[in-house]
Amino acid sequence: MTAMSTGAGSIGATEITQRLAAICGPSFARFAGAADEVAGRLARWVAVPGGPRAAAEVLRLAARHDLSVVPRGAGTKIDWGAAPARVDIMLDTGRLAGVGHRPAASPVVEVGAGTPLRAVQATLERTGRRLALDPPSPGATLGGVLAADESGPLRHRHGTACEQLVGLRWLDADGELVSAGRSAAELAGAAPPVGLDLGRLLCGSQGGLGVLVSATLRAHTLPPSRVWVTRPVWSPLEVHDLIRAVLAADLDPAAVELDLPAAGSPPRPPAAPAAGATSGPGGRPMSAAEASARANHPAMAGRRAAPPPPRGSAGELAVLLEGGRSEVAERAERLLALLGGTASLAPDAPAWWRRYPFAPGDTALRVEAPAADLHAAVYALRDAAGAPLSVRGSAGLGVVHAALPGSLPVDRVAGILAAVRGVLLTRRGRCVVVAAPPAVRREIDVWGEAAVIPRLREAKEHLDPHRRLAPGRLPGGL
Q1: CB count in 10 Å sphere of residue 150
Q2: What is the pLDDT of residues 113-139, one digit of tens each?
Q3: Confidence band for 185, pLDDT divided at 50, 70 and 90
Q4: DSSP for 94-126?
Q5: Torsion region of 295: left, alpha or beta (phi above 0 gives left; psi -120 to 50 gives alpha)
Q6: Cα 183 to the center of its chain, rounded Å
Q7: Parallel, antiparallel, or unpaired for β 89-92 and 45-47?
Q8: Torsion of Cα atoms, 459 then 465 then 467 then 470, to 10°
C-alpha cells in the first residue's frame, strides 16, 4: 500500500483503517463503499465510534494526519448543500444514540445526536409527550435534522429544532467536547438557557463546525385532538389572501401548509439524466453496484417521483389545529366558515403533508420570504422557469420548496436562480439550492446571499481553524 498523499506522512491507508478499528472496534471501521459519498464526493474511510470519547479519538487521529472529517447521521440529507472539498473520514454517528431517562413530567429531554427522530417520538409517546419536530425526511436522526436545519409543518407554532434547543454538546475539530446551554440533567426551573449563540451556529452547518454529540430540547404534552382543515386553491395570489385571513382570525394554527402542483401544464416526460447524474465521483462512469447503492440510499427515501396531477387540477391549502377536543372543534368550525363552502375537515393529514415536492435528480430549491411576499416569489419562479412548478411547504411562514427538472441545462438553472434571487433580494428573502445533479452543483452558488457568513467565518476560525471538518460545505466555501 502506498503512503497517503494528504498530509498523513509515511502512514499508509491500511494503517489508518487499523487505527480506526482500534478506536471504534473491528466491525465499525472500514474503507468507504459506493454509497459513502457526501453531495457526490466519495469518502475514503467510514468510522462508527461507540460514544463521544471514541468520536473524539477519531477526530484526534484525523488532526494528527491532516485528514478531513464529515459527520453522517442516517444519510437522509447527505446529498444536500455544497459538496465538500474532500472527505477522508466519514464519521457515522449511529452509535451516538439514546434518549436520556427523565421523569415523565420533565419539560425537557436529552437525545443522542445519532438517535432516529421517530425512535425519540416513540419513546416519548409512552409518557404522553413528544418533540414538536416533524421533518419530512424518513428515518432522519436528531443530529441530521439539526445539522441540515430541517423543519416540518410544526415549525409554524413551535419554531425550528434549533430554536427549540435548551442545550447542545458537540466535539470540535481537535476532539474537545464543547457544551452550550444546559443538559437535561443540569436544567432546573424555567431559567432561560445561556451560551447557546455559538451552538446554534451548528444548525445548518452540515457538520462544518463540529460533530454533534447530544441535544436537549423541550418536550411537549401530546395534544388530545388534531384536525386538518383543507381548501382547494388555484393561484399564489389566492393563497396569499387566504393565509392573511387565517392568520388574522386568532385561530392559533399549529401549521399552515401549501401544496401547489404544476397544474395546467402537460405532464413532463421522464427527466433525462443530467450531465454527471450517472457518473461516479470524479466523473467516471458509475458501475451497476454504485447505481444500485445510490438508488437505495437513505437520501432517496421519501423523494420518489409522484404521478403528475391531472391537467387543471387545484392545489390545496391545509391548516392543522391542535389542542383540547372542544376548543379544537370550535376553532375548526370558525375556520371552515372563514374558508368557505369548498373547505373540508378531516382527522388525517393530506397525502402530500410532510413530503418534499422534488424527486431524485431534480434541482431542489428552498424559497424563504416574508409570508406577505411569498406569492411574488412563486410568481417570479414560474416566470423565470417559463412554466408552473411544483411548490410545497410552510406558506404560513413563507418557507416553501420547489423542484426544477433535472434535465434543465445548467445555464437555465443559473438564469432561474438569478431571476428569483433578484426578486427576493428586495423582499428580505433568499433562495437556496437544497440538492442538485452534480453538473448543476459544480457550476452554481447553492447558497446565494448569506448574511451569516461573517459569523460563520468567526466560528470556523474558533472551532476548526485548520478547516478539517467538512471543508467547503458552509456558505462562502468555508
Answers
A1: 24
A2: 999 999 999 999 999 999 999 999 989
A3: low
A4: TTS--B----TT-SEEEEETTSBHHHHHHHHHT
A5: alpha
A6: 24
A7: parallel
A8: -40
Q: 83 is written with which cell numbers?
A: 459538496
Cell digits of residue 446: 447553492
Sort 159 into a burial class: Cβ within 10 Å, 0-12 / 13-18 / 19+.
Answer: middle
Q: Which long-range contacts (CB under 8 A, 24 or more apart) does 308-314 make?
A: 308/261, 308/262, 308/267, 308/268, 309/261, 309/262, 309/263, 311/263, 311/264, 311/265, 311/266, 312/263, 312/264, 313/261, 313/263, 314/232, 314/233, 314/234, 314/263
3-state secondary structure string, 276-338? CCCECHHHCECCHHHHHHHHCCHHHCCCCCCCCCCCCCCEEEEEEEEECHHHHHHHHHHHHHH
| φ and ψ at residue 203, rounded to 5 degrees | -70, 120
Q: What are phi and psi of 21, to 5 degrees?
A: -65, -35
What is the full DSSP assignment across 196-217? -HHHHTTTTSTTSS-EEEEEEE
- Average pLDDT in the 141-159 region? 96
> CA–CA separation, 334 vs 50, rounded Å?
53
Is the Cβ–Cβ distance between 206 and 80 less than 8 Å? yes
Residue 183 CA to residue 168 CA, distance in Å, equals: 7
Dump strand ranges (E) for 163-254.
165-171, 177-181, 211-218, 220-221, 225-233
Mean pLDDT taken over the chain: 86
CA 138 to chain centre: 11
Give the pLDDT confidence of 29-51 residue by residue, as tens digits: 999 999 999 998 999 999 999 99
Scanning the structure block, which residue is given the C-alpha cell 452543483?
A: 441
Q: How far is CA 105 from the centre of its chain?
A: 30
Radius of gyration of the chain (CA): 23
User: Any residues with CB less than 8 A from the CB of 412 and at least 6 apart, and which?
Assistant: none
Distance between CA atoms of residues 430 and 445, nearest Å: 12
Grid coordinates representing 131 are 418533540
Sign of CA dihedral 80, 85, 91, 97: negative
Q: 170 near 199, Cβ under 8 Å?
A: yes
